[in-house]
Amino acid sequence: MIEVVNEKIQHYADSMTSGHDALLEEILRRTYSEREDKSMLSGFYQGRLLSILSHQIRPRRVLEIGTYMGFSALCLAEGLTDDGNVITLDIEPETFAIAKEYWSRSPLGAKIDGRLGFATKIIPTLDEMFDLVFIDADKPNYSNYFDLVLPKLRVGGTILADNVLWSGRVVDAAEGAETDENTRALHEFNKKIKSDPRVSNILLAVRDGLMMIVKN
């Protein structure tokens, strides 16, 4: 496993980044102190990046695939237009209920539409054109999610895909080493995006890798 960003540099970057609100800090602290799956949380630094990107894009419609504790949905909601909303999809009832409780305590909660179920089944039913999509769910389905959402993304719209460096393990896949299913799926996704003429992309070495994709 490769350290994508030096720990001291990341700590310095965190310290020089604008803070988030008390509710987001509560979610962060609860997740890190109580949950074994805490690595699934976007975290402070990436949360601020999602917020800034949302503010820059000013999306009316956001789709999030993978809700977890509701942290990233709140970050994405910060930049919405006045009539905007975030539709966020997940399959885990326990964390979904926690997320809904946090949203109910936020002034942005009314802008978040959480839906429980398989994204591959829900996305085809959405009669929306999205400005921003955030993919942060099961890795083998990343390519499927991309195929499903691209027709529902406006020209100039942005897709963000998380964990695309997978702690550096995608480098092993690129070099032909034997790897696990998640690593292979993410490497194939990265190659797929780079070769798709319908989009332009940049793979950002942020946290665990964030792929930014813009529809041409």
Word description of this protein:
By secondary structure, the protein is of the alpha/beta class. It has a single domain (7-215), classed as Rossmann fold (3-Layer(aba) Sandwich), CATH 3.40.50. 41% of the residues lie in helices and 20% in strands. Strand 6 (199-204) and strand 7 form a beta hairpin. Helix 3 (43-57) runs parallel beside helix 4.
Give the terminus-to-terminus CA distance. Answer: 34 Å
- Put simply, the count of helices is 9
Low-confidence stretches: none
* Count of beta strands: 7
Q: Which topology does CATH recognise?
A: Rossmann fold
Per CATH, the architecture is 3-Layer(aba) Sandwich
Radius of gyration over C-alpha positions, nearest whole angstrom: 17 Å
Name of the level-1 CATH class: Alpha Beta
Q: So what's the overall shape?
A: globular
Q: In what order do the strands lie side by side in the largest sheet?
A: 3-2-1-4-5-7-6
Going by helix content, strand content and strand pairing, the class is alpha/beta
